[in-house]
Design brief:
By secondary structure, the protein is mainly α. It has a domain of 43 residues. The protein contains 4 helices and no strands.
Length: 121
């Protein structure tokens, strides 16, 4: 129901943009009535209403749709967040890529060394 209201609101806004002499410069010009077009609400997966992952959810739609023509996102989890973060960090446009990778490797080595010490005890 809310989407029908939003659709009507958007169509009325589009119609308001077509008022004026520039749009109706010809004597035969006719204003389009966007609100008269049929409207079909798409059924698409929705993120949980209490979720704080709206940005990740939208990125998933963009990535999956553009790269794989998959237009369904069913979940956002830690793996999704990590993949997007790694994609951002490892892109060629990131001037600090070497610094970030070096710091990540240093952190990982410390973690592995610490873990190995814990097993030896």
């Amino acid at each position: 129901m809310l989407s029908s209201y939003l659709f009507l609101n958007q169509t009325l806004h589009l119609e308001s943009l077509t008022i004026g002499p520039k749009w109706l410069s010809k004597t035969t010009a006719e204003r389009p009535r966007f609100s008269s077009y049929p409207f079909e609400e798409l059924v698409v997966p929705q993120q949980h209403r209490l979720s704080m992952d709206c940005g990740v959810w939208v990125l998933q739609w963009i990535i999956r749709g553009a790269l794989w023509a998959i237009h369904s996102v069913t979940t956002v989890n830690d793996q999704t967040r990590m993949r997007i973060a790694v994609d951002f960090v490892l892109r060629s446009h990131n001037a600090k890529i070497i610094d970030v990778v070096e710091k990540a490797m240093t952190f990982w080595r410390k973690k592995v060394t610490s873990s190995q010490r814990g097993r030896k005890r």
